[in-house]
Structure formats: C-alpha cells, structure tokens
Specification:
Elements lengths: L5 H11 L9 E3 L8 E5 L9 H16 L4 E5 L3 H12 L3 E7 L4 H9 L3 E5 L4 H12 L2 E2 L6 H17 L5 E5 L4 H13 L4 E7 L4 H8 L7 H4 L13 H10 L2 E5 L1 H15 L5 H12 L7 E5 L6 H8 L1
Parallel strand pairs: 2-10, 3-4, 3-6, 4-5, 7-8, 7-10, 8-9
Antiparallel strand pairs: 1-2
Helix pairs in contact: 1-2, 1-6, 2-3, 2-6, 3-4, 6-7, 7-10, 11-12
C-alpha cells in the first residue's frame, strides 16, 4: 500500500494555495500553564471546516490527470459534502452529493446553497447510493477520506502548524474516517519527529481506538456510531487511512458526550469560536486527559453546528 509522503503534502499545499484559507494558530491563554494551548480554527474556512483542503486538492489533481470533467460525486454526513460542492462550483462543475437522512439540516442547506444536487439516503447506504449516482451521471467520485489526494490535502494543516509553532510538543486531532489525522500525522512526524500526535474519538464511536489497540480494523454498526452527538465522527477508517494511523499516531483518546458539549461551550465562551461537536473533541481530550507537557495544538476541525444544539451546549 502506497502511503502519503511529506512531498505529497507539499505538492497539495501548492495546488490549494489560492483556494483555501491559511488559518492562524491562535494562542489560548486560558490553557494549562504546563501545556500552553494553541487552537487551529479550521472552522474559519469558507465552508466552515477543514474538508475544503482535501476537496480542492483532489479535484485539482483529477483535472491535472484527466483533463476536462463536468460532474463530480461525493458522499458525506455534511462537511465533505459542502467542501466538494464549493470546490465544484469554483471550477464550474456539477456536483451530486449523497447525504444520510439524519444529517443536520444546517449542513444539507449549506451544500445546496453551493449549487449542488443533494440526494438523501438511509443510514449506512451512502456509499452504495453514491456509486449509483456516479454510474448515472458519469461523475468522478471524490471520497471523503479514502484517497491519497484527500489525505495529502488535509495534511497541509500539519505544514502550517510546524511553520507557526516549530516547538510544538503535542497535536490533538479528531478521528473519524481518518483522513485528517493521517495527513496531519504524516506532516508532523516528518517535520517534528519528537512531537506527539494523538487521535481523539467520542466514546460512542471509538472504533479506531479499538482497532489501533487490537492491531486491526474493527467494524462498529451504523446504529452504534450514530449515537454520538458528533455527527462528523461517525465514519470508520478505511484500510488506507488505518495504515497511516498505525504509523503516525502515538495513541488514541476518547471523550464522553458531556465532555464534547462542554468543549463546544468552552470554545464559545473562552475562545470566542464556534465549534460543532465533531470539531470540539480535541479540546475535550485536552481537558479530560493528561497529555505531555509543552506547547499543545488542538484542531478545531469544523464549526457547522445547528443553532438549537449550540444553544443547548451554552445553556
């Protein structure tokens, strides 16, 4: 299996430079003194999440390799859907996005607002439905995490972290399908090999934690994974991302549902940042676990939260 390299990530950074925000690394003075806290707010991206990086890299790479394309297809619970829709609109392409029926309406509406055709499907059916849509339209499939171009695009976050904080000691990254943690892990380990990279999952969707503990991928049912409020963390690593995670992660941490909503509240009240539950798990882990001393970066991966849920967290 060919794994993504630091050169792949550097090439991705060149491809996406004109389309993606280079998010700041924000110091958080309310962090613990022995673990100075920094926040990487990917919620500031145009679509409110890090997924735009992988989407632009994958679409640009497809256009470089294949020439002219007219249609793209993606499946996602929300943020990848918006990212592909946004990138496709930028390039003048038609986007067909398959989304589970339980996807928060704020993410469905945002995807449609970028001009995409949204196809809703039942739980656990999105890959099969997307394959049918691709067959019907002739569109190029842009998967949410299971592709080297996606992993490399997400890895550009790691390049920026090292540029801004060369002395980084620990990086806490949300894990779902594993593309984000794989890419960031490759970059951090290549440039700061002594830094510790920790993945974070909800306890209710901790399939990657179990798989890395046992040494092989495990399958949790959709009904089990769908229990968590962190709707963006309900996917499972693929063989490709699991192979990366085994190489680049120093461990996995899990957090409770209460921990997650508490972190959403902390981001809003202390950091003046809006985080969706999936985007808040790294801060939850920082608060609930003892992590190594030294400068610590938490990835705020997205901020697309339903207003009602945000009000609930703040209350």
């Amino acid at each position: 299996m060919q794994l993504v390299t630091i050169d792949d990530i550097r090439a991705a950074a060149q491809r996406i430079r004109s389309h993606v925000l280079r998010t700041p690394l924000v110091p958080a003075p309310w962090g613990d003194p022995e673990r100075p806290l920094w926040v990487k707010p990917e919620s500031l991206q145009a679509i409110g999440a890090f997924k735009v990086r992988g989407a632009f890299n994958a679409l640009t790479a497809v256009r470089e390799r294949s020439g002219s394309i007219t249609d793209v297809v993606a499946y996602s619970s929300g943020n990848h859907a918006q990212a592909v829709a946004y990138a496709a609109a930028t390039f003048g392409l038609r986007a067909h996005i398959v989304m589970p029926e339980e996807t928060p309406e704020v993410k469905v509406a945002a995807t449609r607002a970028h001009g995409a055709r949204v196809v809703l499907c039942g739980a656990g059916q999105r890959e099969a439905v997307a394959a049918d849509v691709a067959a019907d339209t002739g569109g190029v499939m842009i998967p949410p995490f299971d592709h080297p171009d996606i992993i490399a695009g997400q890895g550009t976050i790691g390049l920026e972290i090292v540029d801004d904080l060369p002395e980084v000691a620990t990086v806490l990254v949300p894990v779902s399908g594993g593309g984000l943690a794989s890419g960031i892990g490759v970059a951090i380990k290549a440039l700061c090999p002594r830094a510790v990279v920790l993945g974070v999952e909800p306890e209710l969707a901790a399939d990657a934690a179990e798989g890395l503990r046992t040494g092989e991928r495990v399958d949790w049912s959709v009904s089990l994974r769908n229990r968590t409020v962190a709707d963006g963390l309900r996917s499972q690593p693929s063989e490709l991302t699991f192979a990366h995670l085994r190489q680049v992660l120093d461990g996995m941490l899990t957090v409770t549902e209460d921990d997650i909503l508490s972190a959403v509240r902390e981001f809003a009240q202390r950091g003046h940042l809006v985080a969706e539950p999936s985007g808040a798990v790294a801060l939850a882990a920082y608060r609930q676990h003892t992590t190594p001393p030294g400068p610590t970066v938490v990835i705020l991966s997205g901020g697309n939260i339903e207003p009602r849920l945000l009000a609930q967290a703040l209350a």
